């Protein structure tokens, strides 16, 4: 059996197999020639001291052979003639639910309002270049969901929702790099994820499942408080006794449909703020204590950051931080602007960006109380529409230098940022309600105390970062995972309020699929 070790080494040692082997041989007091292989099991960076170190968990093959093994997909069987389950949405929750259904012998019918992962690119180009928002195909809608073209982060803080390793291993089996099994904060990258998503879809179809694109669900058929099927925008009816609702955090039409049909939903607190962009070299110099001009060196990756503060009784924190990344336009309807961020797999862009958001409370939505359970959604929508109006009623976004924002000054000039549609100088206090503006202003000053150099006019704030999570929760039974009111309806993933990213959404999709199987068997 290989010997497992926990070690801490310099970045150049961690990056070079020969140096790493020599280091381990010295620790074990053996000859490097006796070490046949060193497998890195886990890797993380410790930048707390001035000298940055890399933490490694390794398996050392000392005088024993190492055989490389390749992760395999489950033994899927054809489900063409098996009982059918409708899945609304082809994001991570929907795709992993479909794969799980096939694994346990049920036929998934995946209905996706948007286009396939390759076709989506045209509509992303249109929103970036021509400021045209397709309400069914954009950064949020389409095969793979919001995460496909907005980063592909695979990190989750939750360790209680299911088997994280299983999801990561499935990604690898579908073509992701094995590095995601090793890194403390795994990341596939927007340039790599589409090919993996396509492979998943092809596998679903190969084993008898269906995936229908450009198929927006406009009604959910219910009789005697039980699901009977769905109706699409073309007027087609698809019947099924089980429906997994995995539509994502931006499917406002689905929230409105449920509310209109008096299918119980409730407002949910979420977080909202701005997306801040710094030069990556500045973040490197802060996090790695390296010289701003000479940089981090060739053996360290672009530095991320994570920061949390309590400001006036509210949490303010970094969200979806993208080292070496860019800011993207993520509106889902004309007449609004929304920002998000992503990084390519190499994280090799010159800028770093992060959502900087403030936690909201249900009482913040009181001005929209007439909308009932949709009050939070209307609060969110009002800010996005106000930003659109202030920035010139295109996909340009309101922007302000960070120090100027803390001093309530309109920035005289905004340099070109990674946000392709462009920016308009705006005093961001006009975008947000007063309490939110004040929290952000005070919070940035606190951030600057914790990360010296972070509070700078080199940083550009883009508004708003508003789609951090769903503004609605669709309640479900904690045991059966069915809607508390409607039998056979499984609220799932981010849109229902039960996930917060690719991994947790995928896990939730699998859980709902397994519960569908229980109901079918009964």
Automatic annotation (TrEMBL):
Annotated ranges, domain FAD-binding: 84-117
Keywords (A to Z) from UniProt: FAD, Flavoprotein
- Cofactor(s) in the UniProt record: FAD
Flavoprotein: is it a keyword of this entry?
Answer: yes
- Alphabetical list of InterPro entries matching this protein: FAD-bd, FAD-binding_protein, FAD-depend_C, FAD/NAD-bd_sf, MnmG_N
> What's a single GO MF annotation on this record?
FAD binding
Ranges for domain FAD-dependent protein C-terminal:
269-468
Q: Enumerate the spans annotated as MnmG N-terminal domain.
A: 199-258
Keyword Flavoprotein applies: yes
Q: What is this protein called?
A: FAD-binding protein
User: Which organism's genome codes for this protein?
Assistant: Flavobacterium album
